[in-house]
Design goal:
299 residues; alpha/beta; 14% strand
């Protein structure tokens, strides 16, 4: 609708609207979080439903902003049957901040509102951090190998925080989203990580394995999503393209993976399970990389 404006102006308009939306909804969610500290735990489910509804509102406003400035062609290969009454673990490749907006838009009305695994540093971002805390988003404090060598007492602390976060999801249908690569893909990171994949970073198995060990019996399925942004201007990231009305095409592949005993085990102590799980994840990532190669070379 507004695509006749110059791209820089569109970016200012859409970014301003998105910031206002995030500030308003984030403030309301944060207020609900304060109430969580004050009211009896019996009222937590009602407050959680309210915060999930507010997140859905945030997603729908973003959808309206997105449509206001973009005329995007969506190509969706959907092999799933999903329900808002089930528990899901959603795994996805990670290329841009646009991934988060698009996943909420694509799945917000089909499955329980998603909970993202977030870096601990995001807790201190204005509006966003406090709102994500109120939404029971699991914050991950990742310790480097060098840090753990100097502070062995911290070993396992990040997994304990994951377990505490996941425990909150047992009483209400929930979708937990894990960007298994741990960070956004770019060519520099691919080279630094010596990735064997052309369009992906190496998947980090520990987080997803631990989540499955804690909530594996609760999850009904794994939703395996592959996102691609063909035809995006090389000078623009997908997020900047989204804001400036230049996101011409999005390709999405949605598959489901059953969760059986072969995907649940002690990743830290059982070496046989660890080898098996890493092999399964590598094969999943190889298939994802091949799909991206087909989509991106085609366009």
């Amino acid at each position: 609708m507004l695509r006749f404006f110059p791209a820089p102006l569109l970016m200012v308009i859409s970014a301003s609207l998105a910031i206002i939306n995030t500030a308003i909804i984030g403030t309301l969610v944060a207020i609900c979080g304060v109430f969580k500290l004050l009211v009896p735990k019996q009222l937590y489910p009602q407050l959680s439903r309210l915060t999930n509804f507010l997140m859905w509102c945030w997603s729908e406003v973003n959808r309206a902003i997105f449509k206001l400035v973009n005329k995007t062609e969506f190509v969706i290969e959907d092999n799933s049957q999903l329900s808002k009454q089930h528990w899901y673990l959603l795994i996805c490749n990670h290329q841009s901040w646009a991934d988060i907006v698009l996943l909420c838009m694509l799945f917000g009305s089909r499955i329980p509102m998603p909970k993202f695994f977030l870096k601990q540093q995001l807790l201190y971002v204005p509006f966003v951090g406090l709102a994500c805390w109120a939404l029971d988003m699991p914050f991950m404090r990742r310790y480097s190998r060098q840090y753990l060598l100097k502070h062995p007492e911290k070993r396992g602390k990040d997994l304990e925080s994951t377990k505490r976060s996941c425990e909150k999801f047992k009483n209400m249908p929930t979708t937990v989203i894990n960007f298994v690569e741990g960070t956004r893909f770019n060519q520099q990171k691919q080279q630094q990580s010596r990735s064997s994949y052309q369009y992906l970073l190496p998947p980090k198995a520990l987080g997803i394995a631990y989540t499955l060990s804690v909530l594996g019996e609760q999850f009904d399925q794994i939703i395996n999503v592959t996102l691609a942004y063909p035809n995006t201007n090389p000078g623009l990231t997908p997020f900047k393209a989204l804001l400036s009305g230049k996101l011409d095409k999005v390709v999405v592949k949605i598959d489901t993976i059953p969760i059986d005993q072969q995907l649940r085990g002690d990743y830290l102590q059982d070496k046989h399970f660890k080898r098996h799980f890493k092999l399964w994840l590598d094969q999943t990532w190889q298939a994802k990389d091949q799909y991206l190669k087909t989509v991106l070379n085609k366009d």
